[in-house]
Every structure is written in structure tokens, then in C-alpha cells.
Specification:
47% strand; YefM-like fold; 6-stranded antiparallel sheet; mainly beta; 212 residues; Jelly Rolls; 4-stranded mixed sheet
Length: 212
């Protein structure tokens, strides 16, 4: 689609060309989409000055040439969406290499200025079989964005220690593409076992998009 040509008043008898439709009409209306994902699928090459309305977040935005900007400012502090995922299987790790816990959630921010708050609760976590401790970290896709709980379950001996572990983090991903957040676990020792998900409890992870 061509960039907007500005404003033009059409007169009776004028012949409307394809260039007129693309350059004037298409760029002078507010396009309505179900979500930012639907908009991205429909408009692969947005042009500066385009206006769109998103039904899921009730915001009107214009394209600045590099990003969509909410008219009237971003709804600061407002929770725009909440997504939760769970995991119920036990994961055992006997190495210092970080391993997926099986707890992950995928969210697609509606605004590239939004923050994403992650709250993860690991049921039945701790250490066993030796003198070690468990460490959890949070991943955004393939990138580590923080070690959130360290020295979990340490006893200084081979005694078993178990508890629930809750970790939280506020991320600023600066994107409207889908993001997967997940947690990983390792053991401080390459022989002793660290674990999460033991027992009958369910681990949960929540991703909340918050207007910046």
C-alpha cells in the first residue's frame, strides 16, 4: 500500500483511480482489527500516519513510522491481558546445566511499550541425595533475563529439603510479537539432585501485560 498522499476532496464526476483509493481513501480511515496480532497479519508493511482501532484493548493507535502509538497515551498501569499456564510433572536435575522445568507461558503484547509481569510458583521444589541447592532462572524465549531464586533447599548435607518457590519479574520486551516465558532449574552439584514439581501440587505461571 502506498503512503498517504494527504487529504483530497473529491468532486462530482471525478474518476476514482486505484492510486486515489490507496493514497487517499485507505490512509484517511480508521481500520478496525480484533487484536494487534490480527493487524500485523493484515498489514505487513504499515505506513506512517495510518490509524487503527484494536477491539481487544479498546485503543486507537497511529503508526509513527517505526511503531504503533496509542492516541491519548498508553493506559499506564492498566492490566491489558492475563494468561496462565500450569505444569504437574516432577523434573529432576543432577547437573549445573540449566534445564526446562516444563513451566512456560506464551503472550503476545498488544503494545510495544507494555511491560509484562511474570509470576511463577513452583510446587514441591528442593534438593535431595547430596549437599546441593536448586537455582531457578527466567527465560524470555532463548534469552535468560534473570536468576530469580537461588540456593533453594540447601541443607549442607544429604538431607532432603522441599518447599514451594514463588518468583516474580517485570520485563519490558518492547515488541508486539509472541513471547514465551519459561523457567529453568539447575543443581549446584553435578551429582546431587535438585527438583521441582514433587508431590500432587500444580505449578503455575502467569503473564500479565501492563500498560507502561
Amino acid at each position: 500500500m502506498a503512503a498517504g498522499l494527504g487529504f483530497k476532496e473529491f468532486l462530482t464526476g471525478d474518476v476514482l483511480t486505484a492510486a486515489d483509493a490507496n493514497g487517499y481513501l485507505a490512509s484517511q480511515v480508521v481500520m478496525v482489527f480484533a487484536s494487534s496480532a490480527a493487524r500485523a497479519s493484515a498489514i505487513t508493511s504499515p505506513q506512517e500516519g495510518m490509524f487503527t482501532y484494536l477491539k481487544d484493548t479498546d485503543v486507537t493507535q497511529y503508526y509513527s513510522g517505526s511503531a504503533y502509538v496509542t492516541i491519548g497515551g498508553t493506559p499506564g498501569g492498566k492490566v491489558l491481558q492475563v494468561i496462565q499456564a500450569t505444569a504437574a510433572s516432577q523434573v529432576n536435575v543432577s547437573t549445573t546445566t540449566f534445564t526446562d522445568t516444563g513451566l512456560s507461558v506464551t503472550i503476545t503484547p498488544s503494545l510495544n511499550t507494555s511491560r509484562v509481569m511474570i509470576i511463577a510458583t513452583h510446587s514441591g521444589s528442593g534438593k535431595d541425595t547430596g549437599d546441593t541447592s536448586a537455582t531457578f532462572r527466567l527465560m524470555r524465549d532463548a534469552t535468560s533475563i534473570g536468576t530469580l531464586a537461588a540456593i533453594v533447599g540447601t541443607t549442607g548435607s544429604s538431607l532432603t529439603n522441599i518447599s514451594n518457590v514463588t518468583i516474580s519479574f517485570v520485563d519490558t520486551p518492547a515488541t508486539t510479537s509472541a513471547i514465551t516465558y519459561k523457567t529453568q532449574l539447575n543443581s549446584a552439584s553435578n551429582t546431587a539432585k535438585a527438583f521441582t514439581g514433587a508431590g500432587s501440587g500444580t505449578s503455575t505461571i502467569i503473564a500479565m501485560e501492563i500498560g507502561a
